[in-house]
Structure formats: C-alpha cells, structure tokens
C-alpha cells in the first residue's frame, strides 16, 4: 500500500473545495493500493513526509508568494526529510487571484532543494473562481495517485 500525502492550505470555502476535490481524485474507487492522508500545512510535518510515497501540495497565492502556512510547513520539514525523501513524486496546485508565477517559482525553488520529482507542471488556477477549478484539481489528485499505484512514478 502506497501513501499519498495532501498538504493543502484551505482558508476559504473555495480552497477547501479544491482540497476536497484533490482527495476525491486520490481516493477514486478503482485505486486499491493508495492510501490518502490530508493535512493542513500547520498539521503536517517531517514525519508525515517521511511516511508518504508521494505528496500533493495546495496553496493560495499571497502577495505573489505561497501561503505562510505552506512556507511554515517547508521550514519545519525541510532538513528532516531532505536526505530520506529525494525523488519523492510531487504535484502542486495554486489558487491564484493574480498570475501565480511568483508562488510557483517559490515552491519550485524549495522542491528543487529537496530534490523531489515533479509528476507534471504546477496547476495554476488563476483569476476569479471558476466552476472548472475543482475538477482540474480532482484530476491532478487522481493522476498522482494512479501514477503511484501503477509504478509510473
């Protein structure tokens, strides 16, 4: 059984809907060998990262940067996982009121330092809320979980 960790900052009903969509995708009924754990960045820590086989990060764009909550998660976890989790499959979605590129660069910089492996480019959900945001995040969760289960990543 492989474990997917979702670490998502959810300060609003819309961002909670995105986290729920990621979980729905990661727990698709046909996936039999992936267990999904969902935690906020404040709840998650290095032990959670060490216990997982893949990680899906979710953040808001705050002043052109990742959420302080996700930054806090990285600050507390970085040195505790850097050696043990090199190559960890990861994915990212960003709920961006603007363009999300500053947030993307910041997270990519940390992920590069951790030597984690992107399973696909970050998903940036730009502008005003759109009804198709949640299905896109659900697909991302499904893709990552399926890739883990089938040994693609």
Task: Describe this structure in a few short sentences.
This protein has 5 helices and 7 strands; from the N terminus they run E-H-E-H-E-E-H-E-H-E-E-H.
Characterise this structure:
By secondary structure, the chain is of the alpha/beta class. Helices cover 42% and strands 25% of the residues. It is built from 5 helices and 7 strands, in the order βαβαββαβαββα. Strands 1, 2, 3, 4, 5, 6 and 7 form a 7-stranded mixed beta sheet that branches. α1 packs parallel to α5 (133-149). The two termini are 14 Å apart.
Task: Give me some keywords for this one.
153 residues; alpha/beta; 7 strands; 42% helix; 25% strand
Question: What is the fold's blueprint, element by element?
Answer:
Elements (H helix, E strand, L loop, with lengths): L1 E7 L4 H14 L7 E6 L6 H5 L3 E9 L2 E2 L1 H14 L7 E8 L4 H14 L2 E2 L4 E4 L6 H17 L4
Parallel strand pairs: 1-2, 1-3, 3-5, 5-6, 5-7
Antiparallel strand pairs: 3-4
Helix pairs in contact: 1-5
* Discrete helix count: 5
Question: Helix coverage percent of residues?
Answer: 40-55%
- The unreliable regions are none
Q: Give the quaternary arrangement of the chains.
A: single chain
Strand content: 15-25%
Instruction: Look at the helices and sheets and give the structural class.
Output: alpha/beta
Major beta-sheet overview: 7 strands, mixed
The residue-averaged pLDDT reads: 97
Give the H and E element order: EHEHEEHEHEEH
What is the molecular shape?
A: globular
Give the terminus-to-terminus CA distance: 14 Å
Structural Rg: 14 Å
| Secondary structure: number of strands | 7
């Amino acid at each position: 059984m492989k474990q997917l960790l979702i670490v998502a900052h959810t300060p609003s009903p819309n961002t909670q809907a995105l986290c729920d969509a990621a979980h729905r995708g990661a727990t698709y009924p046909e996936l039999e060998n992936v267990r999904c754990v969902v935690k906020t960045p404040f709840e998650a820590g290095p032990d959670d990262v060490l216990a997982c086989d893949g990680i899906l990060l979710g953040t808001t764009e705050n002043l052109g940067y990742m959420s302080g909550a996700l930054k806090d998660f990285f600050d507390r976890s970085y040195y505790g996982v850097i050696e043990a989790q090199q190559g960890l499959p990861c994915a990212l979605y960003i709920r961006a009121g603007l363009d999300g590129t500053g947030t993307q660069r910041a997270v990519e910089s940390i992920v590069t330092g951790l030597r984690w492996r992107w399973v696909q480019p970050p998903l940036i959900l730009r502008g005003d809320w759109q009804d198709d945001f949640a299905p896109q995040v659900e697909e991302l969760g499904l893709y990552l979980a399926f890739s883990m289960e089938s040994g693609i990543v």
